[in-house]
């Protein structure tokens, strides 16, 4: 009998929350069968360097070099350069480590040499020995801007400098209307056997990817193959300020609330056992619902959720 055809998987991802699941997937399938489309709305230019936090978080995680306690940056990192930069009066609220800076210098140099963000992401992936394809959502700069009671802030200013404290009034993906999906993004959605929406913030991690013209439509065309994992469990975010942001923008911070944001392009919605009473209301939206443990504190839990997602019937 010929061997069963291996499934290919495309995942849409933000940073820290998504990486836990990606690590699990990486361990239960052949990493070459996985393609990750990554949010770049968090990208920021600091000290003249282009920083792409979510691309780096995903790449460092899959390379096994990430600081697992923080979920970003290198493990055992030092911050000597940042201290010197601060001595020159430069901002130091965004913690760029010494090893991490090499990534940003390399990426910025490639861009200055006329290469694209995709080229830089590919170069970093290959150099770090990651076999999974990692694609930015687009090559253009599309910064996520958060309109707050304190005025409009870049997403990193809102999240890191202001610790997600200001009340959010509106979110804007600056320049998204003129962006185009990066090379390989639409093909990865069109050709995958299974498309996973990672348990990332629906508004500021998955939202920017969906705002790139053509991506949401491509997902809608594959709706029956799209499986979304809910990032809210028991009304609380698995990671970061999703719950607070959803509530402030008038969305329900619950599994049902997130399901409503994804219903047009996602055929299956995966919720945690803690939210099982919401399964019927989500089914009424027209989605299939899977109830499994989605909290990933341990390596085994990451693998377990990954295994449920790659085996579930769509
Ligand atoms: N997050 C923080 O909370 N504080 C930081 O100083 C910080 C620095 C940083 C540097 C490089 C990088 O790739 C990520 C970094 N992050 C930091 C994480 C990042 O702000 C967010 O977690 C993501 O943008 C959201 O996915």
Can you walk through the features of this model?
- The chain has 314 residues and is α/β, with parallel strands linked by helices.
- It has one domain (9-310): Rossmann fold, CATH 3.40.50.
- It is built from 13 helices and 14 strands.
- The chain has helices spanning 16-28, 53-63, 80-87, 98-112, 117-127, 155-161, 185-191, 202-211, 215-221, 242-248, 255-262, 279-284, 299-311; strands spanning 9-13, 34-38, 44-46, 49-51, 133-136, 144-148, 151-154, 168-173, 194-197, 226-229, 232-233, 236-237, 268-271, 288-291.
- A 7-stranded parallel sheet has the order 5-2-1-9-10-13-14, with helices on both faces. A 3-stranded antiparallel sheet has the order 7-6-8.
- The longest helix is centred in the middle third of the chain and has 15 residues, at 98-112.
- The radius of gyration is 19 Å and the shape is globular.
- The model has no long low-confidence stretch (mean pLDDT 96).
- The structure holds ligand FO1.
Task: Give me a quick take on this structure.
It is built from 13 helices and 14 strands.
List the helices and strands and how they pair.
Layout: E1 9-13, H1 16-28, E2 34-38, E3 44-46, E4 49-51, H2 53-63, H3 80-87, H4 98-112, H5 117-127, E5 133-136, E6 144-148, E7 151-154, H6 155-161, E8 168-173, H7 185-191, E9 194-197, H8 202-211, H9 215-221, E10 226-229, E11 232-233, E12 236-237, H10 242-248, H11 255-262, E13 268-271, H12 279-284, E14 288-291, H13 299-311
Parallel strand pairs: 1-2, 1-9, 2-5, 9-10, 10-13, 13-14
Antiparallel strand pairs: 3-4, 6-7, 6-8, 11-12
Helix pairs in contact: 1-2, 1-13, 4-5, 7-9
Bound molecules: ligand FO1.
Ligand FO1 binds next to helix 2 and helix 6.
């Amino acid at each position: 009998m010929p061997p069963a055809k291996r499934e290919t998987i495309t995942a849409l991802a933000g940073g820290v929350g998504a990486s836990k699941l990606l690590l699990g997937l990486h361990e239960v399938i052949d990493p070459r069968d996985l393609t990750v489309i990554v949010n770049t709305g968090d990208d920021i230019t600091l000290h003249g360097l282009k920083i792409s936090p979510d691309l780096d978080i995903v790449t460092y995680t899959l390379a096994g070099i990430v600081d697992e306690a923080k979920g970003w940056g290198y493990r055992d990192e030092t911050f000597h350069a940042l201290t010197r930069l601060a001595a020159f009066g430069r901002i130091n609220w965004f913690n760029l480590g010494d090893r991490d800076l090499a990534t940003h210098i390399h990426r910025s140099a490639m861009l200055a040499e006329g290469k694209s963000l995709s080229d830089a992401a590919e170069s970093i992936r290959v150099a770090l020995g990651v076999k999974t394809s990692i694609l930015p959502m687009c090559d253009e700069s599309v910064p996520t801007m958060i309109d707050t009671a304190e005025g409009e802030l870049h997403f990193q200013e809102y999240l890191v400098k202001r610790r997600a404290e200001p009340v959010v009034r509106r979110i804007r993906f600056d320049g998204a209307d003129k962006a185009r999906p990066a090379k390989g993004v639409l093909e990865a959605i069109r050709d995958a056997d299974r498309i996973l929406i990672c348990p990332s913030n629906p508004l500021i991690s998955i939202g920017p990817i969906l705002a790139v013209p053509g991506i949401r439509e491509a997902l809608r065309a594959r709706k029956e193959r799209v499986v979304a994992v809910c990032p809210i469990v028991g009304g609380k975010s698995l990671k970061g300020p999703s719950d607070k942001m959803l509530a402030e923008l008038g969305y329900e911070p619950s599994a049902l609330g997130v399901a409503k944001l994804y219903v047009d392009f996602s055929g299956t919605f995966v919720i945690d056992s803690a939210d099982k009473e919401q399964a019927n209301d989500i089914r009424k939206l027209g989605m299939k619902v899977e109830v499994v443990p989605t909290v990933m504190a341990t390596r085994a839990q990451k693998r377990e959720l990954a295994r449920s997602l790659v085996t579930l019937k769509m």
